[in-house]
Amino acid sequence: MPSVYLSPSLQSFNPYIIGGNEQQYMNYVADALEPYLRANNIAYNRSQPNMTLAEVIAESNLGNYDLHLALHSNAAAGANAGKLRGYQAYYYATSADSRKVAEIIVENAKKIYPLPNLVFAVPVTNLAELRRTKATSVLIEIAYHDNLADANWIVGNIQAIAKNLAQSLTQYFNLPFKDVCTGAGATLAILGSYPKGNYARVCTMSTSLNIRKQPSVQSAVAGSIPKGALALVLESPVNGWVKVRYNSTEGYVSADYLCACTQSGSTREGVVTTNGANLNLRVRPADSAPVIGRITNGTRLPILEQIGTWYKVNYNGTLGYVSAQYVKEVN
Fold first, then answer.
1. In sequence order, what are the residues at sequence separation of 6 or more whose Cβ sits closer than 8 angstroms to the Cβ of residue 135?
2. Domain co-membership, 136 together with 168
3. Which of 172, 285, 291, 308 has the smallest C-beta neighbourhood within 10 Å, fewest atoms?
4. How many independent structural domains does the chain possess?
5. 239, 262, 285 — which closes off a domain?
6. Helix axes 148-156, 158-172, angle to 10 degrees
7. Do 39 and 78 lie in a common domain?
8. Of 262, 293, 318, the domain-final residue
9. In angstroms, rounded to a whole number, what is the distance separating the alpha carbons of residues 168 and 69?
10. Is the pLDDT confidence value at 266 over 50?
């Protein structure tokens, strides 16, 4: 299994022209990327906002990572301030692997950035996260946050940027890309629980779902999510409401109109790998859900759906959910 060290920007002092800062939005990109990494069996670790750059590099070098991925947005200096646009992937000039990753990222980014002629790879030797990291490394400047058009593009396309990066990583690691959501399961109101940090799909009958500032129909509307779009779940459902983020807008939506994000595939199978212990089969995808069976280590199971960090399986005719971390998918 390939592994990645995610390093979103530490630069809270770099403001976006529309409000917020570089550290904030690059962590939003990392948040949005994590479910894609899990869906595609890419292991990862991630730096924390309170770390120094030296601590980030040291932590990355302690692990045996295949890639160090630094996430940044750009700003121009002097007379060019606010005038430049573009998306760059910086790579270490003497590393063939670093260049390969950067070029893959650039070619895919051209598909989503509105000015593809301004997307390019840049060889450098002076950036610390490229020069001092043990793993193959790339530092991405995802557009210019001091430019109004670029800043609006970043905050309005957090999830598209994350998915695009995931597609680049699977291409580099020679893996088939798996989307995080190929179907919609039960509503979160019915499930009663849902793993935070995973996507859920809007399944309203209308065109969009309102995001409210507080968990109440009387609360002000902060934004909306189009029907069928994905929302990142920040907190499990409470009293019929779910805290979510859609791109850069956070707030609360009704659990009645948000459906579990599933990965369907009748040909998928997995083997229970618990190092000898039994694996709990639960009635819902939650650690608190009642146990309806126990599955012995080494048992082969058909995987019916993936819901966040859980698999829906059929165990001797009983349908239930098991933690995906204890099931190794096999062909």
1. 5, 60, 61, 63, 65, 66, 67, 68
2. yes
3. 291
4. 3
5. 262
6. 70
7. yes
8. 262
9. 12
10. no
Please tell me whether residues 15 and 58 are part of one structural domain: yes
- Asked if 161 and 28 touch (Cβ cutoff 8 Å), the reply is no
Does the predicted model carry a pTM greater than 0.90?
no
State whether 24 and 166 are in the same domain: yes
Lowest mean pLDDT among 142-146, 189-193, 212-216, 227-231: 189-193
Say which DSSP state 68 is in. E
| Sign of the torsion angle spanned by Cα atoms 23, 24, 26, 27 | positive
Does residue 325 register a pLDDT over 70?
yes
Q: How far is CA 224 from CA 5, 198, 228, 251, 256, in A?
A: 32, 19, 12, 10, 15
Bridge partner residues of 270 (DSSP):
301, 329
Residue 100 in tokens: 């390969």
At 150, the amino acid letter reads: D
- Residue 128 tokens, joined: 């610390």
Distance between CA atoms of residues 61 and 257, nearest Å: 44
Q: Are residues 74 and 130 in the same domain?
A: yes
Closest CA to 203 of 252, 243, 255, 248: 255
The parent domain of residue 74 ranges over: 3-172
At residue 307, the 3 state secondary structure works out as: strand
Angle between helix 96-109 and 158-172 (nearest 10): 140
pLDDT given at position 331: 60
Q: What is the CA radius of gyration of the chain?
A: 21
**CB contact set of 96 (below 8 Å; sequence gap of 6+):** none
